[in-house]
Amino acid sequence: MIEIDAVSKRYPDGTTAVDRLTLEIPDRSITVLVGPSGCGKTTTLRMINRMIEPTDGRILLDGQDIRERPVNALRRSMGYVIQHAGLFPHRTIVENIGTVPRLLGWDRQRSRSRALELMERVGLDQSLAKRYPYQLSGGQQQRVGVARALAADPPVLLMDEPFSAVDPIVRKGLQDELLRIQADLGKTIVFVTHDIDEAIKLGDMVAVLREGGYLAQYAPPNQLLSA
Ligand code: ADP
Ligand code: ADP
Known about the structure:
Elements: E1 2-10, E2 16-25, E3 30-34, H1 41-48, E4 56-61, E5 64-65, H2 71-76, E6 78-81, H3 93-97, H4 99-103, H5 108-121, H6 138-150, E7 156-160, H7 168-185, E8 188-193, H8 196-202, E9 205-210, E10 214-219
Parallel strand pairs: 3-8, 3-9, 6-7, 7-8
Antiparallel strand pairs: 1-2, 1-4, 4-5, 9-10
Helix pairs in contact: 5-6
Bound molecules: adenosine-5'-diphosphate (ADP) (2 copies).
């Protein structure tokens, strides 16, 4: 479980991005942070993997303050997926997906077979293995981003608007794939979106954030009050 305990973030220019946020994020389910642009979703996600430090409050992972863990170990336990996939342009698809295993010291062969296995898992044809990111569609690139985040089998996935840049039909395919992956692998997923329909479709729990970074609602999708 990830516990966000009265966390605030004020940036040095005085902007309050997150205001006394308290959330319990259950294991092995999808928790969606939803709200308009600027309500603190990305800031919250980045505090969970310590790319940003809170101004107040604390975050616990399995009962332990995340500041007590080595930051590299923390980040290795959390796959991270961003909107435009953020793939390495000069590396092939298998190399992109195998990045973290290679960093962990796996040899080329083992990283490669892991990457191929993950391509299948996210619905990518193996014929794409030796291509470069620019040779893939936006939706395929996002699948590679998801595969790369899963490569070291982290218990947690942090996903920041991963499907927002693709057209609605491709987005639906990606959402369905994520639900399948979640059903198979049981990751703890924190998913950021500004799209309430996506939040309702994907979330086991939905946290509705408002301007100024405060939590308006936290409930399963079928118990959300209309805004
Ligand atoms: P969201 O992901 O919901 O769009 P963000 O977490 O990116 O929201 O931003 C929350 C608020 O913090 C916004 O008002 C944004 O402009 C502000 N903000 C984000 N990053 C910085 C920064 N580095 N410095 C100052 N303000 C920032
Ligand atoms: P951006 O501002 O473009 O989102 P970031 O600084 O967040 O860039 O990330 C740079 C690159 O590092 C991205 O490719 C991102 O996917 C990757 N990255 C960021 N945080 C993590 C993390 N905790 N674990 C693994 N990769 C990460």
